[in-house]
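Checklist before submission:
- one chain only
- standard amino acids only
- sequence pasted in full

Submission:
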Amino acid sequence: MVGAAVLIFAGLAYLFDFFPEEQRALRGGIRSTAEKAFPNQAERAASSYGLTFLGEGSSGSSGSDSESPEHGGEPLGPDLAAPSVLLIHGLDDPGLVWRDLTPVLLSEGINVWRMKYPNDQPLQESAWFLFEQMPALRQQGVEEVSIVAHSMGGLISREMLTSPEMAYAEKVQQGEAPRVAGLVMLAAPHHGAELARFRLFGEFREQWVNMLEGRWQLLSGILDGAGEAKLDLLPESQFLTGLNARPHPEGVVMLNIAGDVSPWAGMDFDLAGDQVPGIPANAGQQMMADLGALLESMSEGSGDGLVTVKSTRLDGIPHHIVPGTHLTVIRNVMEGSSRVPPAVPLIMEFLERVSSRN
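Returned file contents:
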């Protein structure tokens, strides 16, 4: 039996998603109003987004959100003779997902950048933000880069590389952006994720970590997007339908990695007898029965607890399944753990292969 508060929240989330465009307009209006009403906070939030170069010995190498690292009093810069990698996080990530991968990349002499963006905004806006950041790499002398993206970050990367409006390949030909040689996508929901409906729990986690690490500010949960991203992540959304209809980007070696350990395994999600207050009995019972079936499928089906293995597949793209949840495929729960996240060796092997290929 679930608590009344959880029932109300889950039921309303389920109900509202029958009206995605109305919900999108409402969320976008809330964000726009907040930006206009609190310009100082909006400007401060915007200044925290963008690329950060992670160099050896920087606090950023542990996955924290520091400013550009310094070494010996001078800002570090990339070794242009070494490979370059750009890390792109997913939805509601407070900056911890790369905690275990970054030191491994740095130990191999790889140039590492991390991109931070307002992750709750529409995915197309996030893809445009990534597109606008790429010339900064080229201006630093980087001619070629590989992208490692977690979850929603994989969708944003694909959108940038395949969008006719962005025409990224033309940007590369004109010498204004680096060529993307490889793209690793970790637990990316290419065909959507039903549990995106309940992203409020992930938003709470992100803001809580930001508060603990001193990065939280008033309205930060709105200024990074008002939850429009979850609408794009739902199966058969307009965004995913358009993205998946395009061919894969030419000249980019791609790899999908998925986890198959669900934290929901063994839990009882029989909600058929529960009721949502304020909704007619028959409709409410059907809603909760559907919700219970959804959660039950996520606990018993093949997936990482948030994204099914099926959703991570793309025709024609190599696919690996590793033992891990949506997060533990790439990072450990406890800092300092000696466990090697199962996706790390695959990523390093992929990057070496892409680097030797070019």
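Reviewer check: The two ends are 56 Å apart (CA to CA).
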